[in-house]
């Protein structure tokens, strides 16, 4: 039994309670079972209960497996009609820069600007199925251009303004955009970052571009966003309906083993999946204030974008979440009366190690939910939130991915929170944990995270992937017609899940598979260690585990500390968790969304080429590992 941290107050005001009454069940486990066995009823309910604008038609879901299913083939809708329905006067977007400049937009203003964008794109010559891309900061204009593109049936795809030239081109050369929105300069950590040279290089290598629109510097050679929409004067509302399977977004795999895969998502599918998560699992209500710390190069931006469909407002922040002080996001929560605060597990770990005490320094009076994603949240992170941030909040650790633009496992506002556990599987998804032979794993046994049924945000296809070869290879080689996600997970007695790390970063020690997160949780209990990275090195016909650690400022890794770490791993995990070597490293490679990339280090150590260093935020970090003689 894990440590119980929170139990919900009795309530029948939750959207999930209404859903239970509809399904004639009384508990989450029964509701989850019903949502899988009655998938058409469940997804129709989400559509209707959420007030999605449009029609689903009479035809049922055509289930022919993951690669050839159709959701609601007679549906007609445009998701922007749902995202922007409601009171014109409600503030629905608040934008905050690192320097503190704040801008607010009412729904009426957003609707008007989105319509101007749609008209402007049509005047350029864009039509349904064309691609609009963006290299941007997390600002309101990014939301506006995405809304405008979706209004005309175009496809939107974005990257963060801090992506390098090669990284952007690896993505956008594949999808051949016709319009590009760019950020010419942005702030980070108190500094102004100039992107003009990078933007010029990128634009020069995208021959399909018909229009480049800029935000930021007045000296940009491209027309500014404000100047452009000032020329756009639509005479009527633009909203081109499409089928449920009309493409709306292209997201990208991290690209650590080659060029990023271009994952094409249905706009309607992503909306329906997001609404099921936001309304029933996370209790987001109309008029809430919802914040998720994200960049425009991470799927959480798309997820936050969809929050507008609940009737809630979204708060955008662009900059370092720890600048000018580590309390920045809690200041933002108080100043904007946030009801929902979304961050990464890494952020929670960072403020825990800084011993912040927001419970003592901030009111957080409206905050109902804190969400964590990006990597597994440690038990220490769970405990820290309840002991030092807010004892009465629903802490929802959520886990999914770019691949489905949503979650496989996440919170439940009517269920208790246990330390170290994700509460429940996502409604509508037959989430299981399988062992090597394909059998369902017993409670407490590590295995592969899989999903055994189709759902609305399964990708439509990968861009430029004849015969779905890349698509099949990515998810369906391990178990036939079962989505294998690449996460290493165990089920708990309480009905939850513990994510042990990526299965492609799984270690094999004397034939036993070990998730890297199992090691990190223990090594990072040491105050001297700020972060860990474990890899398997091919060694004497087998493998051995090497653990790299980043040390706190001014601290060196000593033989005494190495012995203490090994002893803790042996005592708290098992002898197989004890690495053969523990070495101090200056920096670890990360993706643009700040995830550790163990496989890049493993490749260097095992003399395997890393084919796409442009996917890393800091590829130079691998130089130190290349110089090792192990």
Write up what this structure looks like.
With 630 residues, the chain is an alpha/beta fold. 30% of the residues lie in helices and 24% in strands. It folds into two domains: 4-491, Rossmann fold, CATH 3.40.50; 506-626, ANL, C-terminal domain (GMP Synthetase, Chain A, domain 3, 2-Layer Sandwich). The protein has a seven-stranded mixed beta sheet with strand order 3-2-14-13-15-16-17, sandwiched between helices. A five-stranded parallel beta sheet has the order 5-4-6-9-10, with helices on both faces. A four-stranded antiparallel beta sheet has the order 22-23-25-26. It is globular and about 75 Å long. The chain has 20 helices and 31 strands. Helix 2 packs across helix 3 and helix 13 (345-353) crosses helix 15. The mean pLDDT is 94. A hairpin with a 4-residue loop joins strand 2 and strand 3 (102-106).
